[in-house]
């Protein structure tokens, strides 16, 4: 499948929201989406409607930061440390699990929909059976403390297209690759430029790898974040992406935006691997397209909000972005 050219990107809709949307999951073959919101709620919405009116489905006890659709099972996680299973077909809650010891940062489903992975600030990645809610594996390898003895954070997770590998990434730029079937850590790469520590004025750090994505053939692993920051009270570092041959432990490309500052919160490769899309923001939001093989930036596009997440359709012709008080929809091709 040949992916559409990034130059064909067009914004179709821009929808205001009363609160930030931290994550989105899209139902295949439709414009039905599920939204994880700052107001502690999970919503469902039909983006094809003339008037889009997200409907509240259920609530968490704090920010909802991750949502994934695995078949009919919608699974969300939040700062209340819980995972909630929702039957999207029946429209009812199935279970609520005390999943982690600290804030949940991300929830992702395996390509076959059989597993759900959650990552949290307890530095654990947990694999769950999507149908039963049973804990399958508890993956631990990220350090709980930064090199300066402050608590670290586990921000990102992504499955490979064949579902055999899972990548996880933390605050200090450590990215681990796991074998899903055995739970064994098989490789690791480092992106330390994405972590900034201020030992003088604030005794504080900022940054971290906020997004990861495997190439369609599974050979490359991209990591997104921000470059070095001078004033750690602001996201003034340039948006940054690094691409690795993870099995060799070698960085093969790096990209730093010359137009946008902030975090790259989400990454995804085109289905044919011809480009890599990153999205994020600081005071303003962006979409960045890269050619990993040619090591060049293809397109840098401003969007009307800091983007926290996006859903890219299987054919890469439809894109839904969610973020700070706004949802945007886009077409390609």
3D structure, described in words:
- With 333 residues, the chain is mainly beta.
- The relative contact order is 0.14.
- It is built from no helices and 30 strands.
- The mean pLDDT is 95.
- The strands form 8 sheets. A 4-stranded antiparallel β-sheet has the order 1-30-29-28, with no helix packed on it. A 4-stranded antiparallel β-sheet has the order 2-3-4-5, with no helix packed on it. A 4-stranded antiparallel β-sheet has the order 6-7-8-9, with no helix packed on it.
- The chain starts with 9 loop residues before the first strand and ends with a strand.
- It has one domain (6-331): Methylamine Dehydrogenase, Chain H (7 Propeller).
Sheet of most strands: 4 strands, antiparallel
Strand order, biggest sheet? 1-30-29-28
Q: Can you tell me the CATH class?
A: Mainly Beta
Using the 3D structure, state the CATH architecture: 7 Propeller
How many β-strand stretches?
30
Question: What fold name goes in the CATH topology slot?
Answer: Methylamine Dehydrogenase, Chain H
Could you tell me the mean pLDDT?
95
* The named CATH superfamily: YVTN repeat-like/Quinoprotein amine dehydrogenase
**What percentage of residues falls in helices of 4 or more residues?**
under 10%
- The shape, in one word, is globular
Structural class: mainly beta
From the alpha carbons, calculate the radius of gyration and give it in angstroms. 18 Å
Low-confidence residue ranges = none
Give the termini distance in whole angstroms.
13 Å
Strand content: over 45%
Give the number of domains: 1
Order of helices and strands: EEEEEEEEEEEEEEEEEEEEEEEEEEEEEE
Instruction: Give the number of helices.
Output: 0
